[in-house]
Amino acid sequence: MGISDEEWERLQKVIDWPGPDQEITQLNQSTSPVHSSFSIVGLKESYKVGEIISVTITARDHNKNLKRYGGDFFKAKLFNLKLKASVYGEVVDHRNGTYSVDFLLPWEGQAQVFVRLEHSSEVVQILKKYRESSFPRAHYHGYFGSGPSKTRITEVVECNLKWGADGSWRKRNCCCEYKDIKTGTVWQCERPKTLSCDKLVHHSYGRLENPLNLFEKQLFAAWVVIQNEFQNDCRCVKIKL
Q1: N or C: the chain end with fewer CB closer than 10 Å?
Q2: Residue 235's domain spans which residues?
Q3: pTM of the complete model
Q4: How far apart are CA 67 and CA 190, in angstroms?
Q5: Do residues 41 and 151 both lie within one domain?
Q6: Rounded distance between C-alpha atoms, residue 77 and residue 20, angstroms
Q7: CB atoms within 10 A of CB 183
Q8: Whether residue 219 sits in one domain with residue 203
Q9: For the segment 115-138, what is each residue's pLDDT rounded down to a tens digit?
Q10: Which tens digit of pLDDT belongs to each residue from 38-48?
Q11: Which residues contact 29 (CB under 8 A, 6 or more apart)?
Q12: Coil, strand, or helix at residue 134?
């Protein structure tokens, strides 16, 4: 790939995303945006342009217990509404329930720090699981037909893109395949019982399948309710030239 082993290892560490160290079976074990908090480290009365301001984020669950692992998706920004200026900080995950953010103070005047929990580590793991799976979310119908209108034979089967770890959403040799020459994308349809694969006439959208189990649905539903409640009170600092 044109990079050293050390650089490859560093890149792998950068994109690695820690997850829960145990199976989460109850909603109150997930990260709570209500009980999580952040603070400005060594807060001073005023700062100068070019200085660094450090913020510590502490994640807690719905029982107010400190999270023992990382993986939460936090966003942190420094902003000034009057100047219409803002800058995001890089959130560093310490993998023990705490996070740190550094901001470079780029303007003179007031600045506010705002932290938002975009996704809990538990929700992140659910998203990651289904992103990396070959579970077909959308299903399509393939219409096959042959013969004159009065005696025409028609069949409707399920179709989808060919994808997944084994390159297929069905068992091998089960389906008719149609490859797009330009993109290389392969479209699969279950093999009709009586008609041949070259009798495909058209296809249409069938249904959308929700891959989430009951607990995962509850976790997402709870998240929708509380996602906007985390630290609406911003922390302010004064910046001088």
Answers
A1: N
A2: 5-130+215-240
A3: 0.68
A4: 47
A5: no
A6: 26
A7: 7
A8: no
A9: 988 888 888 888 888 777 766 678
A10: 999 988 888 88
A11: 61, 62, 63, 122
A12: coil
